[in-house]
Amino acid sequence: MILIDGSQGEGGGQILRTALALSMVTGRAFRLTKIRAGRQKPGLMRQHLTCVQAAAQISSAQVIGAVVGSGEITFTPGAIRAGEYHFAIGTAGGTMLVLQAVLPALLRAGGPSVVVVDGGTHNKAAPPFEFFERALVPVLQRAGVHIEAQLDRHGFYPAGGGRLVVKVTPTTEARSVELLRRGAIVEMRARSIVSRLPRGIAVRELEVLCERLGLSEDRAEIVDVPSPKGPGNALVVEVRSEQVGEVFSAIGEVGKPAEQVASELARDVRAYVDAPGAVGTYMADQLMVPLAVLGGGAYTTGPLSEHAKTNMQMVKLFGVNVRADEDGTVRVGALPVS
Amino acid sequence: MTPKRVIFGLLGTTLDTGKSLNRWERWRPTVSLAQHDDFAVDRLELLYPRMGTSLAKLVREDIAQISPNTEVRLHLVDPRDPWDFEEVFTALHDFASAYTFDQENEEYLLHITTGTHVAQICLFLLAETKRFPAKLIQTSPAFKTNDPAGEYRIIDLDLSKYNSIAARFQREFSDNITGLKSGIATRNPAFNALIEELEHVAANSVDPILLTGPTGAGKSHLARRIYELKKHRRQVEGPFVEINCATLRGDTAMSTLFGHKKGAFTGAAADRPGLLRSAHTGVLFLDEIGELGLDEQAMLLRALEEKRFLPLGADEEITSDFRLIVGTNRELLHHVAEGRFRDDLLARINLWTFRLPALKDRREDIEPNLDYELVQFAKRTGRTVRFSTEARQRYLAFANSNEAQWTGNFRDLAASVTRMATLSPAGRITEPVSEAEILRLRSAWKTPTDKHSTIDICGRIMGEARASELDRFDRVQLADVLSVCQRSRSISEAGRELFSESRKKKTSGNDADRLRKYLARFGITWADVKPTAE
After folding, report:
1. Which among A41, A67, A231 has the least Cβ separation from residue B2?
2. Are B88 and B122 in contact, with CB atoms under 8 Å apart?
3. Which residue is closest to B2 within chain A, CA to CA?
4. Could you tell me if A324 lies within 8 Å of chain B, comparing CB atoms?
5. Does residue B449 belong to any structural domain of this protein?
6. CA B11, CA B111: separation in Å to the nearest integer?
7. Are B435 and B477 part of one and the same domain?
8. Count of CB atoms within 10 A of residue B237's CB?
């Protein structure tokens, strides 16, 4: 039984998702205490509970403490079953977060799986679908996994109603992935997604982005969401370099000027472009678990975020050999195949 | 196992609306219940009016989208007038009564943000009185952000800080209640039927109404409710005027009722209109009408028939048009036979007679009236007092037993509740408090054992002449037996109490028969003891 203090570092929710993912893969049970202690609303939230239930379903786990508001949870996984799964996350919560918890296990399952997740596809505190499709999936493919991601419907807070479908076929011979140099930037594209909102918002956002990032107009595109489930707006910038693809995003909010949304995003993109690392802050965090589950690897990035540092502690708890060098290189060892 | 969370709520026909997708940008209270990440709802029981049918279905779809684990059940609850307290209260009360609450496996919340002001008050009161065994949940738009989920707050009515709201709502509620039954808590089918008939008569007749029944049975309370009902229906405009005829004596009786001119008698320093005149276009309630003097009876009869009467010392008759309700705890027929009551007046007021049962004859109403009296106490003092579960059980067990005679009927109950509530400054009536009250009631109702009372009961039942022939030796025993008989509902019940010790030893065969034979020795039958018993 691995004991985890949920109040350590940053990101109570991510501690849980990383623990679920690695527990399923390693077959080791864990007890997570002080879940989101010190937060205004402590304990498990509904979105976290959905992750727990999804993980339990895939690995036939025994779970104690899986209720909203619970400060402690014990998760004892069984065997991972590949197959077709359908999960729905309430409050238009991030579908990506469910994937974070369950996808690593399916990368190591005995056969192909199809996962359908309903909920929000473009959320504030989670990566958007484009990040998954354009940044993460290519890395997984390089490691040898056959994986496809498809966005069936967009879902924004608060209405939700989005759906993504992921088809994955595991590999028995995972390769180590190295993202040490970014190389020259090949292409930069901006996209404003509007769902049942005036196009003017998208126009204003893209004007600011193009100006700040030096993009020509033909690199900017407006996407009108077909048959929208509710209003929403997301702004996405994709940076393709010689060695790696990165995606940055911002979510429009009621009461927040479009120009501000765009200029904040431009700042994030600039920070990445101006720094030497191959991957951005968010990706640095998101790569640790999948790489550990596959064939390990290494990547360069800027200073690690608190989230990433916490995540590093987490993967170490489950026996992953991970270290961050002073030159900004993160090396992740492969989990021994159980 | 964590209990399931179930919320009851009314569809907000204004706040929950919105067909276009923009509705998601607004705070919609019912939908917001399912929008909080820290708050899981297993089931929502949504009450909607007929005109809100399509909206209710849309709200159900929206909730399914954002909260796949929430089951939404729709219930058509459609009071004709959503601003009428009576109708709304009845509709919600009926819903709550028909609902099967499973408090072992489910915890309930009552959403009070939607619905009319009237519905909110009714829900509050239904939760307060535990008809809905639920805490309240209040939703509100977000205070600082634009988050359409807004905020929610759970309110536990057991906390004393809500006492003043409870009292205020209670007041507002009773001020607006007009149906006869609404102010009268009853589970007794016979009494219920009586009230319904009375309501019908009160609404459709202008003739006098006669209320009989033992003292404290609630005649005065009922008379006032009849007045309120008539006033609500705009059948009367004037005031409710009430007088107990037992308090009227001599000249003052005449002038109190019919008024006088200045100088009509010594001390008549100014004109006085009199109660009949004051009740013009209103309702006059004369309690204990049997105590009214013969002269006053004649005047009253004339006032009823002609709507005119002559005040003392006046030269001209004055007119007054009022509805009359009279009360009595006596058999007016006896008074007629003794020449103390005019038969023509009796005939005039005896058209609609309603006999109010004693509290001990409708014991199932003790519990609802216990709650009612607690509410009354809260209204008077602004202090909400509740029983602890054990204290309530203990008190009700006693109140429903034969031992509790309730000789003063509701007056006894009201006084008893007031004593307990007053002695519970912390707002909770505990077991020691109810235990002490039970002792107090017991001693108050104890059959007095002094000589006079033993003579009384034997004399009353056998006639004083025959009773005086008894030896004191027999008379004391007989008196005790008779008093047990009188408070028992049947001869078997009396027998069980009187021969309880032999019963334990199983030496007694038929207690009722043994008692019947004993009474027969004195020439007394069960019918003599309980003349009204069937």
Report:
1. A67
2. yes
3. A67
4. no
5. no
6. 10
7. no
8. 10
Whether B158 and B174 share a structural domain: no
Query: Could you write out the DSSP letters of every residue in B426-452?
Result: TSEE-HHHHHHHHHHHHHHHSPP-SHH
Q: Same domain for B56 and B101?
A: yes
Q: A69 at the B interface (CB within 8 A)?
A: yes
Q: Are residues B207 and B347 in the same domain?
A: yes
Show the tokens assigned to B88.
Answer: 């709304």
- The reported pLDDT for the residue numbered B338 is 84
Asked if residue B125 and residue B32 are part of one domain, the reply reads: yes
- For B38, the closest of A68, A88, A92 (CB atoms) is A68
Is A118 in Cβ contact with B68 (below 8 Å)?
yes
Task: Provide the number of structural domains found in chain B.
Answer: 4
Pairwise CA distance, residues A92 & B66, whole Å:
6
Decide if A84 touches B, using CB distance below 8 A: no
Same domain? For B242 and B316 the reply is yes
Q: Tokens 């997708």 identify what position?
A: B21
DSSP state of A154: -
**Phi, psi at A282, each rounded to 5°:** -70, -45
Rg (CA), chain B: 29
**Beta-sheet strand order (sheet of B283-287):** B240-244, B283-287, B323-328, B209-212, B352-355
Rounded (to 5) percent helix, strand, coil in chain A: 35, 30, 40
What is the distance in angstroms between the Cα of A88 and the nearest Cα belonging to chain B?
Answer: 7
CB count within 10 Å of CB A27 equals 13
The tens digit of pLDDT for each residue in A62-71 reads 999 999 999 9
pTM of the model: 0.63
Residues A214 and A212: their CA atoms lie apart, in Å, by 6
Q: Do B66 and A228 touch (CB under 8 A)?
A: no
Residue B292, Cβ density class (10 Å: 0-12 exposed, 13-18 middle, ≥19 buried):
buried
Catalytically annotated residue among A48, A122, A154, A307:
A307
The string of pLDDT tens digits covering residues B4-36 is 999 999 999 889 998 888 899 899 999 999 999
C-beta separation of B195 from B180 below 8 A: yes
**Whether residue A154 lies in the annotated active site:** no
And the tokens for B328?
């009595």
CA B3, CA B20: separation in Å to the nearest integer? 36
Distance (Å, whole) CA B503 – CA A71: 61
- Whether residue B105 sits in one domain with residue B198: no
Kind and range of the H or E run holding A56: helix A46-59
Q: Which residues of chain B lie closer than 8 angstroms to A196, CB-CB?
A: 21-22
Tell me whether B143 touches chain A (CB under 8 Å).
Answer: no
The burial of B54, by beta-carbon neighbours within 10 Å (0-12 exposed, 13-18 middle, 19 or more buried), is given as exposed
Alpha helices (H) in B205-357, listed in sequence order:
219-232, 250-258, 275-278, 294-306, 332-337, 343-349
ipTM of the assembly? Answer: 0.91
Give chain A's end-to-end CA distance (angstroms, integer). Answer: 17
DSSP letter at A35 equals T
Domain hosting B342: range is 169-355
pLDDT tens string, chain A, 338 residues long: the values are 999 999 887 767 899 999 999 999 999 999 999 998 878 888 999 999 999 999 999 999 999 999 999 999 999 999 999 999 999 998 888 999 999 999 999 999 999 999 999 999 999 989 999 999 999 999 999 999 999 999 999 999 999 999 999 999 998 889 999 999 999 999 999 999 999 999 999 999 999 999 999 999 999 999 999 889 999 999 999 999 999 999 999 999 888 999 999 999 999 999 999 999 999 999 999 999 999 999 999 999 999 999 999 999 999 999 999 999 989 999 999 997 65
CB-based contact A47:A90 (threshold 8 Å): yes
H or E element, residue A329: strand A329-332
The number of residues in chain B equals 534
Q: How many CB atoms lie within 10 A of CB B220?
A: 17
**Contact call for residues B29 and B119 (beta carbons, < 8 A):** no
